[in-house]
Amino acid sequence: MSSLFMSEDSEELYTEDEEDEGYEFILTPTQVKTLRKESDKRRIKKKLKFYSIPKQFDEDQDLDEDELDARMDEIISGISDLFAEDELVEVRNISPQNRKNVKHLSEVLSWHIEGMVQRPVVVLTSKGHKVVMYSPSPDLPNSIRLFQSYEEGKFNRKPKPIRDNRGQIIKDEDGNT
Asked: SS in 3 state form for the chain?
């Protein structure tokens, strides 16, 4: 198990903050589907921003806590810089030794990044040793617009044409309905 983002302190802070906050950013399944499609489109067009965690974080290396904290801060600041430019970011090489830790480490990483960028960060997909994260930012140009709940008067129905007793549409002299 890699010790990159694993510490007892970070796990305790993660659970305590989740209880104290009372507010949780939740995406609907439709919104998640839209964001996954958008990330796939950007990946195909090579426009998806990504951060690759250096492979220097092996279990074999004996790092003291100061070096580990410095490297972790470097990684978090690098990813948060990408979130300043874009809403979708792919993070690669998460826990290269153990794939079972990828989900937990990505959640802890997103929690730390939330503190840096001061807005919610959500893990969208996890495939292999990489994850795609989303952080909504209406300030950015070309930000992704997610449709929320129904707003009264936002969408109007198209008026149905008038029909006669046979069901045919009645037209006036000009051919308009």
From this structure: CCCCCCCHHHHHHHHHHHHHHCCCCCCCHHHHHHHHHHHHHHHHCCCCEEEECCCCCCCCCCCCHHHHHHHHHHHHHHHHHHHHHCCEEEEECCCCCCHHHHHHHHHHHHHHHHHHHCCCCEEEEEECCEEEEECCCCCCCCCCCCCCCCCCCCCCCCCCCCECCCCCECCCCCCCC
